[in-house]
Every structure is written in C-alpha cells, then in structure tokens.
Amino acid sequence: MRRLSTFALTFLLLGCAKPALARAGTSAPAASVPSVPRTDVLTVEAMVDLEYVADVALSPDGKTVAYVLRVPPDAMDGPAGMRSAIWVVPTKPSGAAGKGHGGRSFTTPSASSSSPRWSPDGKRIGFLSRRPGTSHTQVYAVPIDGGEAEPLTNAPANVHEFEWSPDGKRLAFIADQQPTAKESDDRKAGRDWVESDVQGTMHRLWVMDLRTEEAQPISPRGLHVSHLAWSPDSKRLALQASERADVDATMMYSRLYTIDVKGDAKGDTAQPQPLCETAGKLSHMAWSPDGSQLAFLGAADLHDPTAGVLHVVSTAGGTPGARARALTMDYEGTGQWIDWVAKDTVLMLANEGTRTTLHRVGTDGARKALGDTGPVCFSFDANASGSVAACAGERADHPRELYAGPLPLGGGKLRRVTHHNPGLDAVRLGDRSIARWKAADGVEIEGVLTKPVGYEAGKRYPLALLVHGGPEGISLDGWNTRSGYPTQLLATRGYVVLEPNYRGSSGRGVAFGKSDQGDLGGKEFEDVLAGIDHLVAEGLVDPERVGMAGWSYGGYFSGLAATKHSKRFRAAVVSAAITNWISFTGTSEIEHENSLVHWTLWPYDEPTLAWERSPMAHTTGSTTATLVVHGMDDTRVPPEQAKELYRALRHAGTKTEIVLYPREGHGLRERAHQIDFAARLCEWLDEHVKG
Fold first, then answer.
1. Strand ranges (E), 183-245
2. Which residue, 546, 549, 573, is CA-closest to 463?
3. pLDDT one-digit tens code per residue, 165-215
4. Domain 283-372 adopts which CATH fold?
C-alpha cells in the first residue's frame, strides 16, 4: 500500500526502537505500565513493528492462558509478513506488580505457530505450524511442563483447524483434500483444464486415534468442511460445510451438520446429517454441556450481511426442515463469540456501538447485559462456568494485549496481563472520543474521532476520513492504528481523523446493518458527508481541507469521494476498491455475497443503477488528487478495478497515481509494503490536503 522511498526512511524520526523478538523460554513482559513522559513521535516503522496478541486459549482450570504473539519479521528477511509464536502466561500475577507474570514463550517466531488448543487434561498445548523441512502445516503439541514440540499429525496436506476430543482420546482436524489417482494422472499429463468459473480446495474432516496415531478422513469427498466442534461425550462432531469450496459458497451457503464418530481406531462414522435449515452466513458454534443443544451465531436471513444473531437448535436431529430458534434477533448489537456457561445459558461477546459487551442469554430468549468488557475484546475465551475469561484486548493507547480475570457476572473485571510494546508508552498520541451526529433523514450516526497531537481549542484542522470496509465492518474505540489505517500517524501530523460507522456497519443490530441495502453509495455516503458538516459546525475542521482513505468498501467510498463528490474532497487514497460494480460482479470471488447481502439484487439486472453508483461513472470533471492502490494477487477485488479508475482519471486530466504491490492480496502482508503505503498515504494527504 505504499512506496519505500527516501521519504519513507527519512520520515522515521524519533521512533520507538523495534522490540526484540520473543525466544523460547524467555519471560513474558509485565503488564505494569510505567509512568513515562510522552515525548516521542510515532513513526511509520514503529507503527508497523508493533507486536499483537491473538488466538487466546484459557487452560481447563482457568489459571493459565496460551496465546499467539504476532511479531514483525527482521528487516533482512526480504518479502515477509508477521510471524507468530505461542506464549503461556498465568491469569494472575505471580509476584509484585512490575516484576513479571511468570510467562514464557513455548515456540519461536522463526517457525510461525498459531491456534493454541489445550489438551483436556491441561498437560499439553496443541498448535498449528509448518516447521523447517516439512511441506505442510501440521498439528504439533508441546508439554506444559517443558520439552520440545512434537508433531501429532502427518497429514498429506495442510491442516487448517483442529480440536481435541473432550475425553482426550482423539483429535479431529480439517485438511486439504488430496487429488484422486486419476486426478493426479490427469494433471501430470496436462489434462488440467478447469470446467468452472470458481476455484477453491476442498477440505475434509479427519479423526485421529491418539493412542494408535492412526488417522482417517471421515467426511465425504463432495463436502467442503470449514469448521468443527466436538460434542461433550466425544461421540459426535458438529460441522459447518458447503457443497463447494469457493469463497462465495463457504460464506453464503454453508450448512450445519452432525456426524457420529464410533469408538474404533479407524474412526468409522456415519454420513453427515443436516442439523437444521439455515440461511446465509454462519459463525461461532458451541455444544451445550449436556450435548442436547447447539448454539451458533448466524445471519437473520439470506440477506443479512453479518452472522451476529444467536441461535439455538436441538441436536437430536431427525426432523426434516427443522429450524433453529433465533434468540437475539432484535438486539441492537452484533454477536462475535459464544459459549455455554450453564445448561440453558449462553455467554455472548458482542460488538455494541463502538465497544464490546458481554451478555448472558437464556435459551428462553431472556438476555442480561453484563456490561462493557473494558478493553475492546477480540479472540475471547472463558472457562466452563463463565467466571474467568481472557481476550486479546486493545484500548485507544495500545494494540492488542492479553487481558484476563473474573467476568462481571462474578463481580470482577478483565485486567491487562501483558505489556509487549513498552516503547509505545513514551509516544504522544491524539485524544480519542466518540462523535455522534444526525444524518439528513434523522438517523443517528457515530464514529471514532481522534484529535491532532497537541490539539489547540478554537483552531480548525485538516480532516482525514478513514472509512472501514464491508460495508458491514466497524470502527471500534480501540487501537485503530495500523498500516492500512494509520490513525495516530495522521494525528501526529496535525489531522483530525474521523472513522465513521455509517449505516450498514455492524454493532447496531440487524435492521441497521441492512439499512443501506440496494442503496450502495447513497444514504450511507451521505452519512459521512453529514459527519463532515457536523465537525465543521463544531469549529473543529476546515471544510476546504478534507481527504479520505480506505480499503475495500472503504476504498469504494474514497473512489466516490474522488469522483461523484469531488467538490468536497481535496485528496483521496483508493485502496483495493470496487470502482465498477458491473465488471466487479463478473470477476470477484464474492459475486453472490455482494449481490445478496449488499445490493439485494444482481447488478446485471439493474445495470443503470449499478453504473450510476460506480466511481467510474463520475470521473469526468474530477479535481480530487487520487492515489490508487491495489494488491496484484487480489481475488476479492481484482486489480483491474484499480486500473480502470486510474486510466479514467488520467484521461480526465485529474492528478492521479497508481501503485500495485506484487504478491499481495486484499490487503498488505509484507513489512516493506506496509511501510511504503503508510508513508505514501501521509505524503499524499500532506501534499494535496494541507498544501
């Protein structure tokens, strides 16, 4: 997303030193945050090199947490993205504050590891990794009391997900489906033509007997398995699966199944049985403690853009056309994670507005709010009773760290356990608040507002709008600064930054999430314009110095800012954006998802409307300086979308440049590319908004 130029290097003044990479056996940083004068300036490299906690997993006894620490690659690694290592930390401090928490890393970043899962007896941690000398990602396990990690699986293809059976006797995992002998022979002979417009590798479910180390595929070849969950008695598995392996099918047409697993070493099974009728997107699922019910997060219907409604269904099966009961259909929030905390009670983490909240939901539909989680929580986990939890939590002044502790239902709160970016404590940051305003039709809209570092009351500042994608994405009140959305970097450079949650965003329930359907680029964009007018009326920003940037659907907004609404914007950075709804529909991997949950029509059927809402239709007369950015391997939004807009703007005489990043998909993974894009974005806005 950026160019690695002389500017990008010389701009990095007064930066935080890059933290040393974690090594196996080293102590986890303490959570105690020292009082340090904030005098340093945030730089591009310091921002890109921040470390992040992810994939938290609470031990069975609730006393320890395993998590993934994502760290930047070394500058000499060449084209490389973040690496990951497994860390283990007690949920309670082992000594005085600031003296450490007795944690240590169990793997090194040199061979990235992810998805930690505790064995049921708490003696081992399983994880996914591809070690040197191996060709596929496998499941490894490391003893919690010390020792080397050893492979558990020897699958003939990459493993994507796994779970220990509750009785500790088996391991279920999902791996790429291997070609048949005929398919292999055909490929070798060059008979490798593709008779389809969609692509994807089928995934099969395997079950491994941990005593004999024998593993067998147990799902049919014609079923693409994406997620799994063991029943409490270890006799069945719940699956999410689709008939095709492409992105559209997995996202929009997956169904819930159960499958019986017999007790012999071969893992013989019955055929997967459909559990209930579902429509649209699916997300997290969990068995009730007695195995009689399955809770899952799913869409309200086929046209719901999110999978945020809590459903419950009996696992008895055997009823054709059975449907689950939706328990939170009218809740003005979006479920993100669930688990059972009693026979008839589910704990739910949700996005609500710009925060994350916890709720207890009974199978009768009764819902009790437990309050704000404190930090904005991701990758949540809780013990069986719901009394202790852990999450990767972030706040306005730091990225995701490990938080753990007793939940509000026990009268406690989550507290910060780790402190992986100590250099950030000395960096000056812009103040954060939540802005609210009324749209033209009276709908209340909100967004995350960041003031410039060194803000002076009464002074008008240039405005940078950073618009999230989706459109069902969301801007939360956490650490929103990253390479694609460098919020605090812009605050350091004297901008007011607004991240609007326009209609269609998640976090406010089904009705709000659907309120932009069939009107893409219409009232939802007017929500953003009303936000600008609000900040102008407040005396905070200069209406003549406004720029916009965003990725994916946020890039689409930036494309509209550069064309249809050019008079309101001096500059735009259009990244991985839809610029022509008709050609996008014909080339994207999410033709069905986009048409069903956003347009609620196929652009082919309404070409006049689809074209009018495309930035490509409004390039003539554009005066907005526009930087067009795209990953060259993007399959979600093909890079031809960027070329179309760039060439049309160039033809119109608009100030425009294009940057294409090799090896990158729908976002930037490689460190050098991230540094280049963040520097380039700031330079573009400085030149064309401030200038």
1. 203-209, 214-217, 224-230, 236-242
2. 546
3. 999 999 999 999 988 889 888 899 999 888 888 889 999 999 999 999 999
4. Thrombin, subunit H (2.40.10)
